[in-house]
Amino acid sequence: MCFSLCCVQVIWDIIGNTQFCSFKVKTKSQSFCRNEFNVTGLCNRSSCPLANSQYATVREDKGQCFLYMKVIERAAFPAKTWEKVKLSKNYEQALEQIDQNLLYWPRFIRHKCKQRFTKITQYLIRMRKLVLKRRRKLVPLSRKVERREKRKEEKALIAAQLDNAIEKELLERLKQGTYGDIYNFPVHAFDRALEQQEDEEEEEEEEEEEEEDVGQREYVEEELDESDLSDFEDMNKLRTSSDEEEEEEEEDEEDEEEEMEAETEAESKGRGSKGKSPANRSTPTRKKKRAFVEIEYEQETEPASKTRTT
Amino acid sequence: FKSGADQEEVEVKMEKTEAEAAFPPTFSVSEIKNKQRRHLMFMKLKQEKRKQKIQLKKKKKKEREALGDKAPPKEVPKTIENQRVYDETTVDPEDEEVRFDEGTDEFSAYFNGLTNPKVLITTSDRPRGRTVKFCEQLATVIPNAHVYYRRGLALKRIIPQCIARNFTYLMVINEDRKVPNGLVLCHLPDGPTAHFKVSSVRLRKEMKRRGKDPTEHFPEVILNNFSTRLGHSIGRLFAALFPQDPQFVGRQVATFHNQRDFIFFRFHRYIFKNEKKVGIQELGPRFTLKLRSLQKGTFDSKFGEYEWVLKRHEMDACRRKFQL
After folding, report:
1. Is the pLDDT of residue A150 over 70?
2. What is the ipTM of this complex?
3. What pTM, to 2 d.p., does this model score?
4. How close A308 comes to chain B (CA, Å)?
5. What is the CATH architecture assignment of B92-316?
């Protein structure tokens, strides 16, 4: 096909307005040209690479810019129509190259080529900058996996019984004494254990020391009984919890190894034990045992501010 | 033997035929072509089975009552926790090697009381409302925590600055579609970096029956069910977020509970009603974490040395195998 002027005009008459052009994209306001050699990207009489016998573009390939030129002389050789010139990486030098190569070419094409070249260099610079910055990596989620995990999480939550676990842990810590003196509650289990131990020890000691302590024991007991009774009368008026609290305050004090006045200790111990096992015995022996017991208790409770459970 | 077996088969077939209203022997419900009929027969079959099950249960109960104290102990139902595949890295409480490791790892400074935790909370770029609120609430829960807006800064540049200002922790909350979905927890002076998936975030205003806002007291920490070595290291990671000496006056407790590899975080205020009962009231945000990767040094996604990475195909294949 020869590119004479009239021929070119014919081409434009066909593809420009009336008939079909495969590179044309029409929108409401404007039509674009998808031809890769188009300088401006719009579908115009002067920008159409098919309808112009003399044409030039700038394109880039992997960061390298090239100037493509098409002249009438090579119209008969379709494979060789486009002449490719590598442009320098230096912006000004490249502009000069374009000027030199497109010397005596129509003003429109020269101008548009340089504009396109400028745009290309700008976006290449931006690309290089972005690579250096932090990239946000998009990780695709698999819907199936997400659904499965959600269900597993729900089941795990139900199995965890969090409230119960937390309450248990807190009570454990209270028992072990990590909270020290702040809370004064009866620690029933410990009471019973202590009393059991005391009973055992009492029995042992009684076997050894019966001869010595017989008289003293009885004497002390009577006093205790009176005081206990009187105390109990008073206490009956009050509520049980406060009773327990009072008892425990004193017992806790014991447990926390403060040096306590023996009498109050004795009374409280007596009271407490009275409530549970009325057949308890002497205070002096109990004092000794209590000291012994305290030591044991000390060893047991070394308060740790945090406990990690497995 | 054969003849005996045959006889048994024949007997069984005879019984079956009687039971199934003279249907041909070796009959199964799936062979009926008519859908309605098939459905009916299947329902009947199911009812039969249910009846038999109930009868069996009744019998067992009677036997148990009859025996009274001598009855065999009740069978423990199988749960996933019961059936869990024994993990060889489970920590024995008296293991010396573990104790030595923990004495000399990155948290030893904290656990020996030398450093105080100071946490920097930030988000990914351009956080939306929910994430911002979540960050703020986290900052109230964790004492000595500061929230900073991430202005598109690279984590690698933030980290040296944090170290210079004596921060011990860097917490980055990742956001996706206006909802927090990831957490990067980085222990600062060259400590391990853990990456979690965050799910079910409930902010304070969405909590039912919640209490007042948490006070400035240091909360206690509860760490439950961290049994393996990996679990232990994660547990220590969480523990080191909070100051060593909790203020019991504040009666606040932060719980990290691990169940089937999901770590549930809750923040409660407790009160002891008596020595056997404690009441807890939830304040503060709640969320669940799932560990995705644990990396040795500070945050470095490209060249970091990963101690543990979640590999879904290997690790999620068995339902009874858990990592933490």
Report:
1. yes
2. 0.80
3. 0.64
4. 6
5. 3-Layer(aba) Sandwich (3.40)
